[in-house]
Amino acid sequence: MEIDVLTLFPDMVRVPLSQSITGRAISESRVVLRVHDLRQWSTDKHHRVDDMPFGGGPGMVMTCEPFFRAVAALRRENSRVVLMTPSGRRLTQARVQAFSEVPHLLVLCGHYEGIDHRVIEALVTDEISIGDYVLTNGAIAATVMLDAVIRLLPGVLGDAQSSVDESFSDPDRLEAPCYTRPAEFQGLRVPEVLLSGHHGRVAAWRREQGEARTRLNRPDLLAE
Ligand code: ADE
């Protein structure tokens, strides 16, 4: 897979994704990640990328031109053009999975009060929000989304099972608690069933615990 990111803050995307599992995926060429400074496509002599909003109001709006020029240069026939915005559709594991199956993602990061809506109308295929809160800009949101996408690419996770078993693979159930040695720590014991070696009972216990955690932490998943 290939990914291009357009942002005013390339290091906010490049640095975190250069670490750990995503960093290894990049160095092993399982993904090609190119992070671009949007100002590079500004024709303004001061490299400005924003202006005052028509109709008045506080803050600045990102202008059309740098996005139109950058997308014309980077987009391919089969690209998904994803805008990170708090006004987008919520990022879910199902959407992450769908993005991980496309050959080319072009990710646009917003900033300031917003972005000229003609960019969205003319260029964007998907508007995505990572949650109901507002970040200072879209770069961190892009980083979060791309971390989730890259770990699903073939060969990125060592144990292929680990991306299947976890929370949200069944989108309606959280994962069961997990434990490791020692079996007792400061008087806190690991549930006996996990030490029993009985696979059927372990599986049933995990199902039950997953349900209980879902009821406690995410009742909205059960209601949906
Ligand atoms: N930019 C600012 N806040 C955001 C959010 N919650 N999701 C995606 N992009 C954003």
> Could you tell me the number of beta strands?
10
Instruction: Please estimate the helix content.
Output: 25-40%
Low-confidence stretches: none
What's the CATH H-level superfamily name of the largest domain? SPOUT methyltransferase, trefoil knot domain
The computed structural class is alpha/beta
Can you list the ligands bound to this structure? Answer: adenine
Rg of Cα set: 21 Å
- Do you know the CATH architecture of the largest domain? 3-Layer(aba) Sandwich
CATH topology of the largest domain, by name, is Alpha/beta knot
Describe this structure in words.
- This protein is an alpha/beta fold.
- It has 2 domains: 149 residues, SPOUT methyltransferase, trefoil knot domain (Alpha/beta knot, 3-Layer(aba) Sandwich); 59 residues, tRNA(m1g37)methyltransferase, domain 2 (Trp Operon Repressor, Chain A), CATH 1.10.1270.20.
- The protein contains 10 helices and 10 strands.
- The chain has a 5-stranded parallel β-sheet, with helices on both faces. Strands 3-4-7 form a 3-stranded mixed β-sheet. A two-stranded antiparallel sheet has the order 9-10.
- A hairpin with a 2-residue loop joins strand 9 and strand 10.
List keywords for this structure.
binds adenine, single chain, Alpha/beta knot, about 220 residues, Trp Operon Repressor, Chain A, alpha/beta
